[in-house]
Design brief:
2 domains, 356 residues, Nucleotidyltransferase, domain 5, Rossmann fold, six-stranded mixed sheet, five-stranded mixed sheet, 36% helix, alpha/beta, elongated
Length: 356
């Protein structure tokens, strides 16, 4: 872009959000310090001698990108831009000046960016060319970092982020679920076993779910799911389960009404450990459970609600680079969260460790 702009060309760098483009903007300013004719911070634009322009733009509003003639456009994290950014705004702007485009992105399933990448795979195409570089192609990244990521991340996340693969499974998080569902209902406490609970609270629209996990044998041995009960009645059901299974720790979501419920249960002497679910903590919580199921490290009940929720649970990679995990609209994830909290407790005991 700098070479083109110094030669008098008009160049735009387009990212899903300005925050994602901040590092690029700072890099342009540092590289062109003392060279520019004018710099407009409010517009993220640098004017160069000879008429060249570099502008960093957000693709949040495709209509706001219409109208300008361009010589070069770089679409950063293109898979996370709305397709209209390219088709309705940038492509026509390039046509005016027979301009060029470069698309950079981590894959995001088989969306419009994948379609363009496939066009570039046609060896005889006169105008398009595409490449795929796994993280290991970068000589500046320690191979040990990649090995650690492979060990810690679910398969889908690793394949997209580190292998740059286009996947077509619709963002499904949990794999090999049926193979893990080997535990029959009706289990009872066994001698020498250590039990951990995971609790996700709900009341009317959502369900409260209590997952009972045998930590040593790594088996989900009981699952309670109910709603339309007052908080006192819910705490009573949890206390009754605790009296039966004698858990070492009860990991309970602390968000919203979780806090007062946890405080009341702690006053009764139950070993409740709060877990605050945030954008930062939910990812590691879910990824640990997904990895355990993928590797066959955890056996679960053949419970229809649990199996349905695990099968429907999805992830979406946001323009920020973070992953957003959750149930599709109109569905529930209560059993998933309870199981994830119980698995977290099996790994960490009652130490109060949580991801923040």
């Amino acid at each position: 872009m700098i070479e083109r702009a110094l030669a008098g060309r008009i160049c735009w760098w387009i990212a899903p959000t300005y925050r994602l483009a901040d590092d690029v903007w700072r890099g342009f300013k540092a590289a062109l310090a003392g060279v520019w004719r004018a710099k407009h911070e409010d517009m993220h634009r640098i004017d160069l001698p000879g008429g060249g322009v570099i502008a960093v733009r957000s693709g949040h509003d495709p209509d706001g990108l219409r109208g300008a003639g361009l010589d070069l456009a770089v679409l950063d994290e293109a898979a996370y831009l709305h397709p209209a950014v390219w088709s309705a705004a940038i492509r026509p702007a390039l046509a005016d000046r027979r301009g060029e485009a470069l698309f950079l992105s981590t894959p995001r399933g088989r969306n419009w960016f994948w379609g363009l990448w496939m066009v570039g795979q046609q060896a005889d195409h006169p105008h398009w060319k595409s490449w795929r570089f796994p993280t290991a192609a970068n000589p500046l990244i320690d191979p040990a970092e990649i090995a650690d990521a492979r060990a810690l991340l679910p398969e889908r996340v690793f394949r997209e982020e580190y292998l740059a693969e286009f996947l077509d499974d619709g963002g499904r998080v949990f794999r090999r679920v049926d193979g893990a569902a080997t535990v029959e209902p009706g289990g009872e406490p066994g001698p020498g076993e250590r039990y951990v609970f995971g609790v996700d609270w709900g009341r009317d629209a959502d369900f409260t779910c209590i997952a009972v996990l045998a930590a040593r044998s790594r088996r989900l041995v009981a699952l309670e799911r109910f709603n339309a009960l007052g908080w006192a009645a819910q705490r009573g059901r949890l206390a009754a389960l605790a009296a039966l299974w004698q858990p070492d720790a009860i990991w309970a979501e602390a968000n919203s009404m979780g806090g007062p419920n946890i405080e009341a249960l702690q006053e009764e002497g139950l070993p409740v450990v709060p877990f605050m679910t945030t954008a930062s903590s939910k990812g590691p919580l879910i990824e640990a459970l997904a990895l355990a199921l993928e590797r066959g490290e955890l056996a679960i009940l053949r419970d229809p609600a649990l199996l349905d929720e695990l099968a429907a649970y999805t992830l979406e990679r946001l323009p920020s680079g973070r992953y957003c995990y959750g149930a599709p609209p109109g569905l529930h994830d209560d059993t998933v969260i309870a199981l994830a909290l119980a698995w977290h407790g099996a790994l960490h005991g009652g130490s109060g460790v949580s991801f923040v």
